[in-house]
Design goal:
Elements: H1 2-40, H2 50-56, H3 67-77, H4 80-89, H5 94-103, H6 113-117, H7 138-143, E1 148-149, E2 152-153, H8 158-175, H9 180-189, H10 191-201, H11 213-230, E3 248-253, H12 259-266, H13 270-276, E4 293-298, H14 302-311
Antiparallel strand pairs: 1-2, 3-4
Helix pairs in contact: 3-11, 5-8, 8-9, 9-10, 9-11, 12-14
Length: 317
């Protein structure tokens, strides 16, 4: 009996130890998964998240009963971890994008376009040569006034690329007389392709047009993402708690800035600056069109960065 009691104590000790290891392991996973979110958001009430603000600006019928949209919803729900990671990656940029879409009177759904285009990765490149959150081709970028040159790619700059993409969407909305299904499809495959399909069929109904497979999936996928963001509880989805306030601001200086050196001197994480400034491939802020240099910094690091710039005789403008 004593032997059994000793064994029992040992067994209980092993079970408790294993349980503690599993708990710590799970907590580690949660911490790793939430590190990025904690850098760009804070504990907020559900009603105060950016997703609620975006949902309030939705204008489209998400066609959730249609087979194409249902298929895209099933695809997104099949890998909820990936969807969460994509939406989490939006944290540094989504407030600005949503704000600019509101200013132009555009549907809130358009703030979610980067989910499909780049998964909110500003360094994303397509095999066709498109780049940035909005996956702009270099030719399109040039037409929209976005600079692409040695050491600098404005397509990766959240400010210039977002302003350009949303201006383009504004034009597309006007060209297609407020038919946002056609406008969104045109963003994917081009105005000429959509106009040709409309002329060929005599129909302005997106769902009836003979379009490339990618485009026929593109619009339903956006609608599926919007449907989930609008009612995550319905689909059993957890959205990252991103605050509904600006994350970054722009600092202009009158001379070049070496971002790694600035990060080291100011104590700001270089990875944070890289996330906001992927357009500077060499880590150096180049001259902008108006004769100044500009880069993005987190709003809660503005003072320390400005102080460091002043110490190094960089004149703020």
């Amino acid at each position: 009996m004593q032997l059994i009691n000793q064994f029992s104590k040992f067994f209980i000790f092993v079970v408790l130890s294993c349980s503690l290891i599993f708990v710590l392991h799970d907590n580690n996973l949660d911490i790793k998964a939430s590190n990025f979110t904690n850098d760009f958001s804070e504990v907020v009430q559900p009603d105060d998240t950016i997703w609620n603000s975006i949902s309030d600006q939705f204008q489209l019928d998400h066609q959730t009963q249609s087979a194409p949209v249902q298929a895209e919803i099933r695809g997104l729900l099949a890998d909820q971890q990936k969807l969460y990671q994509i939406l989490q990656a939006a944290a540094p940029y989504i407030y600005f994008i949503h704000e600019k879409a509101q200013e132009k009177g555009l549907p809130g759904e358009l703030a979610l376009i980067p989910v499909i285009e780049s998964e909110f990765n500003p360094n994303d490149h397509s095999t066709k040569g498109a780049a940035g959150l909005w996956q702009l081709m270099s030719g399109t970028a040039h037409e929209l006034g976005v600079s692409v040159k040695s050491g600098y790619d404005g397509r990766k700059n959240v400010v210039s690329s977002t302003n350009a993409a949303l201006a383009y969407f504004k034009d597309l909305g006007n060209d297609f007389k407020g038919d946002w299904y056609l406008a969104i499809a045109a963003y994917n495959c081009g105005q000429v392709r959509i106009a040709s399909a409309v002329k060929k069929t005599g129909s302005h109904n997106f769902w009836n047009l003979p379009l490339p497979h990618e485009t026929r999936c593109y619009v339903p996928k956006l609608l599926a993402v919007a449907a989930i963001v609008e009612d995550p509880e319905k689909y059993g989805v957890k959205l990252p708690p991103i605050t509904n306030k600006p994350y970054f601001t722009q600092i202009k200086v009158a001379s070049p800035v070496n971002l790694p050196k600035l990060a080291s001197a100011s104590g700001v994480d270089i990875d944070t600056l890289r996330v906001l400034n992927p357009d500077y491939s060499r880590g150096k802020v180049p001259k902008s069109k108006d004769g100044t240099y500009a880069f993005l910094v987190p709003v809660d690091h503005v003072s320390v960065i400005k102080n460091q710039l002043q110490k190094t005789n960089k004149i703020l403008v």
